[in-house]
């Protein structure tokens, strides 16, 4: 792969080498010192995987274009990778990249039932199950709409659902997204640059040059000879890291917990409530991220004030929206919703297969092999965030009670 890239105009490969590192696995090692900000690597536009390139391919392009509605960016890239992998000749350069890709991934969609059970009761568990279902549905549609229509270029035994899942994980864990000056975005996979692991010790240091279409990596910090070079994947919470990349960062400062709030359409006053949610920028089913710095976001209160309101409460909330204010409707409504959140979080924590305390003990005892799937899932279960949310609810209820007493 490296000699193909160098022949194609890549710059910097002579100073870098692929190597195995503890925890991150394979990564990129420096063969010389770099100062922060120095350009380390440039991968030219001609060798990048992109939607444009897939559409431009004389064999693949017409098959992709025949799909109506158009395929998603991730499906196009996934099919492109599987297509190149299935070719016995041609595509020599790209094929060297494909053969350097991992043969399997540790994203949560590849967890065994037993491994996933470790995080039963968490949003990771629910979202992974939903994702598995979505992938199955998408694959069935893709097979009908595109693959089966072009058996000459999509041999079905090389485009099975397992192949599709592998290709999707390749895209999720190795592609880079950039927003262009005109507001549009581009997703690309850059051979060799996709061997760079993530560290929160560097800021974003991968860049896309709109004029040339090249991708560059700058040194995110000073490096000594033999150091691992890192890039920054973004402020990604652990459940997303595990879903898309198959790893977690213990003590991740960007960790969050997704709380899904939903209301049955047959609930009283549903239509009025739906209108109020929409004008508040919410919906009848809303996912809200709880974080350690904001364990009880205002949107939870906004959503539940509407959900729990009676006719007069809804009128008061409608007036607030006109006035641009954002307050509790009444002490009793506010206490009711805080109690609800507290109880909901309580049953969520109770619903974990094993208790938090036991989990902490097991992690300390090293019951889950470090770096393994169950270990990663177990880390997800360190539910400091919902615990903090529950504490905040209690705290706010304390204040409410004090308010009520004072008003009396
Ligand atoms: C873009 S690839 C990086 C190259 C990859 N290590 C390889 O061998 O092909 C992203 C994958 O590397 C691993 N990875 C990246 N950063 C990591 C980190 N900080 N800790 C553990 N694994 C990491 C994860 O498996 C992730 O899905």
Automatic annotation (TrEMBL):
InterPro entries: Rubisco_LSMT_subst-bd, Rubisco_LSMT_subst-bd_sf, SET_dom, SET_dom_sf, SETD3_SETD6_MTase. PANTHER family: N-LYSINE METHYLTRANSFERASE SETD6, UNCHARACTERIZED PUTATIVE METHYLTRANSFERASE. The keyword S-adenosyl-L-methionine applies. Keywords: Methyltransferase, S-adenosyl-L-methionine, Transferase. It comes from Trichoderma ghanense. This is Histone-lysine N-methyltransferase setd3. Pfam families: Rubis-subs-bind. It comes from the Eukaryota. Gene3D superfamilies: Rubisco LSMT, substrate-binding domain (3.90.1420.10), set domain protein methyltransferase, domain 1 (3.90.1410.10). Residues 14-234 form the SET domain. The keyword Iron does not apply.
């Amino acid at each position: 792969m490296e000699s193909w890239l160098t022949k194609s105009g890549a710059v910097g490969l002579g100073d870098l080498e692929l190597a195995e590192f503890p925890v991150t696995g394979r990564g990129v090692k420096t063969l010389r010192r770099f100062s922060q900000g120095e350009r380390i690597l440039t991968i030219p536009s001609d060798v990048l995987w992109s939607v444009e390139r897939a559409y431009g391919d004389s064999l693949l392009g017409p098959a992709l274009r025949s799909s109506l509605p158009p395929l998603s960016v991730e499906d196009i890239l996934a099919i492109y990778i599987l297509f190149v992998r299935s070719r016995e000749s041609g595509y020599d350069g790209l094929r060297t990249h494909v053969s350097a890709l991992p043969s399997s991934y540790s994203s949560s969609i590849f967890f065994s039932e037993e491994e996933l059970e470790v995080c039963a009761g968490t949003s990771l568990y629910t979202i992974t199950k939903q994702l598995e279902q979505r992938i199955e549905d998408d694959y069935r549609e893709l097979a009908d709409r595109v693959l089966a229509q072009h058996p000459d270029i999509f041999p079905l035994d090389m485009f099975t659902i397992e192949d599709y899942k592998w290709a999707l994980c390749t895209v999720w864990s190795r592609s880079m997204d950039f927003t262009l000056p005109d507001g549009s975005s581009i997703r690309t996979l850059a051979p060799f640059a996709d061997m760079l692991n993530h560290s929160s010790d560097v800021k974003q240091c991968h860049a896309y040059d709109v004029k040339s279409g090249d991708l560059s990596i700058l040194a995110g910090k000073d490096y000594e000879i033999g150091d691992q070079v890192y890039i920054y994947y973004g402020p990604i919470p652990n459940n997303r890291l595990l879903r898309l990349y198959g790893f977690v960062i213990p003590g991740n400062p960007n960790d969050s917990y997704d709380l899904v709030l939903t209301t049955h359409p047959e609930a009283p006053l549903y239509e009025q409530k739906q209108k109020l949610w929409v004008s508040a920028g919410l919906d009848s089913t809303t996912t809200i991220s709880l974080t350690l710095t904001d364990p009880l976001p205002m949107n939870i209160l906004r959503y539940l004030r509407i959900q729990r309101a009676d006719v007069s409460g809804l009128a008061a909330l409608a007036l607030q929206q006109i006035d641009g204010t954002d307050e509790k409707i009444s002490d009793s409504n506010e206490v009711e919703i805080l109690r609800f959140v507290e109880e909901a979080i309580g049953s969520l924590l109770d619903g974990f297969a094993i208790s938090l305390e036991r989990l902490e003990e097991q992690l300390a005892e090293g019951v889950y092999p470090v770096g393994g799937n169950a270990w990663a899932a177990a880390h997800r279960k360190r539910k400091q965030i919902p615990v903090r949310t529950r504490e905040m609810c209690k705290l706010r209820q304390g204040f409410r009670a004090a308010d009520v007493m004072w008003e009396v």
